[in-house]
Design a protein that fits this description.
Layout: H1 3-18, H2 25-30, H3 32-37, H4 69-93, E1 107-109, H5 112-116, E2 119-123, E3 126-132, E4 135-137, E5 139-153, E6 158-165, E7 170-176, E8 191-201, E9 204-215, H6 218-233, H7 242-261, E10 267-268, H8 269-275, H9 281-294, E11 297-301, E12 304-307
Length: about 300
């Protein structure tokens, strides 16, 4: 071989490593060198179409059913109710319970003279009721003439009274504050009907009026006959014999002295009536009144009896 041919082959040999041919898949599989030197690889799985990704729990493939209008409105109403409940609760606590109506005492029809002869019953220092022959009276209904009117108005106080007379006795009705406006159209000499609650203060029985209405004078006589007829229809208490009256008087005095001996400031009228069950209540009240008039006993405060001595 000639030297030039050798040089050309060397050049070819030198140039070939510089630009190796890019192996194709066919040449790679047919070339034993690549089969021996290539690292073992896992078999390539058969390409399959990628499945759709599994949806997350939140976006479900099926659309959630839309709530119907009625449940939506109910839910809205329930939310509104829950929001309003806290604001309504304190308002209900300041009102009287609807399930417990207030007790209203009966307004009994009486003549004023009957009321002034009653026995005031105290609850501590507070007036509780009036005892009229064993009957407990708190509210009254009377008809009488106005014989005096008095109103006093200052910056700090407003006070008014009417003095009433029905020919059997006299009693005053009292109003305070802005309520004295009820007296504006009333004048001396008018006949009025009064419904109100009895009060007792400073040894005076008076009426706190709820209703005041003008009436014709003829109703004075009608009311008198009405009250007398009602009293006549009630069962009469049997009159005590003279020896029974003396026995009752002695027992009342004995009870008063016994209470004072125990360190008490007298005895309550109600307690006397409870202790002396063998005698009618009106007879006991009558005998107590006799002891007070005779100066044998006295009342340090209404409803409390103490022994004064003979």
């Amino acid at each position: 071989m000639e030297p030039e041919e050798i040089k050309e082959k060397e050049v070819e040999i030198i140039e070939k490593p510089a630009t190796p041919p890019t192996p194709t898949p066919s040449s790679t599989s047919e070339n034993p060198i690549f089969q021996e030197t290539s690292l073992p690889t896992e078999p390539t799985p058969t390409p399959q179409p990628n499945p759709a990704p599994t949806p997350e729990p939140t976006p479900t493939p099926k659309p959630d059913p839309q709530p119907t209008p009625e449940p939506a409105s109910q839910e809205k109403n329930s939310q509104t109710t829950i929001q309003q409940t806290p604001s309504q609760t304190p308002q209900q606590s300041t009102q009287y319970p609807s399930s417990t109506p207030m007790k209203r005492n009966i307004a009994f029809k009486y003549k004023i003279g009957d009321l002034t002869r009653g026995n005031p019953i105290m609850d501590g220092e507070r007036f509780s009721k009036l005892d009229l022959n064993g009957k407990e009276v708190v509210r009254v209904n009377i008809i009488a003439n106005v014989i005096d009117k008095f109103i006093s108005e200052t910056e700090d106080r407003k006070f008014g009274t009417l003095t009433l007379d029905d020919a059997s006795g006299q009693i005053r009705i009292k109003l305070f504050g802005d309520d004295i406006s009820k007296f504006e159209n009333l004048t001396q000499g008018q006949t009025i009907l009064v419904i109100g609650t009895l009060r007792f203060y400073n040894n005076e029985l008076y009426i706190n009026p709820e209703i005041i209405k003008q009436a014709e004078p003829k109703y004075l006589l009608i009311r008198k006959l009405e009250v007398e007829k009602a009293q006549a229809s009630q069962p009469q208490t049997p009159q005590l014999q003279q020896d029974q009256v003396k026995q009752l008087k002695d027992q009342i005095i004995e009870k008063i002295k016994s209470a004072e001996a125990e360190g008490k400031e007298g005895i309550d009228t109600e307690q006397l009536i409870m202790d002396l069950k063998d005698f009618p209540a009106d007879s006991i009240n009558k005998e107590i009144q006799n002891l007070l008039e005779q100066g044998v006993a006295y009342e340090p405060k209404p409803g409390k009896i103490r022994f004064l001595g003979v």
